[in-house]
Here is the input.
Amino acid sequence: QVQLVESGGGVVQPGGSLRLSCATSGFTFNNYGMHWVRQAPGKGLEWVALIRSDGNIKYYADSVKGRFTISRDNSNNTLYLQMNSLRREDTAVYYCAKERYISGSYMDVWGKGTTVTVSS
Amino acid sequence: DIQMTQSPSSVSASVGDRVTITCRASQGVSSSLAWYQQKPGKAPKLLIYVASTLQSGVPSRFRGSGSGTDFTLTISSLQPEDFATYYCQQANSFPWTFGQGTKVEIK
Here is the structure.
């Protein structure tokens, strides 16, 4: 079955960096776009970034543009999110999600999430 | 950016009740709308996409409708496992945006 497993979360000081990973299995990774979505404590869902299947097209939310970089390794079926210049407001659970594109971009399978805490 | 507004923010209901949640987009998104269910401490789960298409494995008591700017999620007969928070998401254009969520609570 399709599985997504995030890792790399932790506690980091403001201004610091973290790299999240999302290991995937059960589907042909290089055929699908992949999203990152986050959820701050007690808050709703916020889309963060999308990378298309070949890795050449990327989209970012304004809140992370210039600080976060989405990438993928299609040979290892893994998605990444490099997070630099972290701010307290980046504290959240970060989910990776597989894209289903049918007349629009949906998130049809989600990982369990990894927690990022930005605090001094 | 397209703003998604859900109502109500929360609803109290009993097992067997019919529950309706609405989602309004600040501009038309055609039928490119999804509904997700999230239980506490768990990842969201896709229920419905393209406004009314049920994701595989989702019970038929969940129904989505609407197009353009106004959408509805209806749970025809609420079951104990349906108590959760529900989010709409517009899938039409970048940046993809979610509603603020509707919490369905036990009455």
